[in-house]
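Shape matters. As here.
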Amino acid sequence: MPERAEGGQPDHADSQVREIVSAITAVADARLTEIAGAIVTRLVGEIEYFATDQPILDQLNAGAADNFAITMAILRHDIEIEAVGPSAPATELARLLAQRDIPITALEHAYRLYQDSVVRWCLQELALRSESATVTAGAALEITTLVSAHVNLIAQQLLSTYEFERDAWRLRRSASRSARINDLLANRHVEVEPTERILGYHLGQYHLGIVMWTDRAQSPEVGLAHLESAATALACQLGTSAPPLFEARDEHMARAWVPLGDADTVDSERLSAVKRRWDSPVIVAIGQPREGVEGFVRTHTEADLARVVVQASESPGPGIVCASDLGAVMLMCNDLSATRAWVTDILGPLGIDDSAAAQLRATLREFLRTGGSYAAAADALHMHKNSVAYRLKKIEDQLGRSVRDHRLNLEIALELAFWLGSAVLTQD
């Protein structure tokens, strides 16, 4: 309220300020629809998120005139600022922005633009009505102070509404998405189109299932941040144009599906390059490209089996492991004690967990992987062909038989030893 001069009467300049502010608000009331429309046009023109979203436009149009009328009432001192809460359209706008994951900065920007638009219009009207510098300054100060206080109060309340709705919406959406994913993985009947809308993901394409996790010694916030960014980075590095479907399982583990569209394979050279360059703290297990709803399930199952292999191993492994690299190893991790006994039976002395046996296992594994070629194995191991022959003679002496006997069992046992390490080897 204006200060009073000596004798208890309002100062003449203050009285003129009140008269001019009242006159400005009277003009505003008469031109309410026009001014509110101009404010909405400015908001839509300067905030990209608003331009193409009809429900947002509806709330802007519904609330603009009411908001402006309330601001004018505050300038007339018809109501106290603290007695005014956000209008229903303003509250609904904040909720819509949160549900669409539109950044909170868009809401803040909208109210700064509203404040600037109101003050600018009032000052333009003020310039037409006052020739006194003292009165003009006083009216400008009162307008900017009251409008700023009103907008700040409403904006703070709506930012709280936004944050509450964002958290609640994410929980509801996450629960709904998780329920649909679990239905798919459990082979329950689902309606494809509604499920796709909920997931935001197309099921009628090729999928690459991935399971990823971080060290549980990390803080939950770090773990979750790494997981989602790792899924996005992996999809990008594999050359996919659409984002992956991501679902956190807990604070340190997540599953995701990379959309491959019509591609039934992943570029092997690109994947190899990604594996070599992977420096994220996230460990990733990858299934094979599979198609459709059944493929959505199968590629995830393969990725999860690859995860079991990696986690069963007690030695640190590569950052990215592909199910296609593991073969039958994935099927033999449910009972490690039985697997360890079988590896010991097949490898005998080669199944001891020491460096000498590891060197012989590596030579035999490469020899069998290269089709039993001394020359190819030597190239792969970067050693002379005679050295390979010497080691193979030593291996056969320890096994008591030719390495070509029971070759399939040897290959599987060597793969188990390679991937699982000390988890299936005999301690010396």
Observations:
- The chain has three domains: 12-169, 201-329, 335-423.
- The first strand starts at residue 206 and ends at 213.
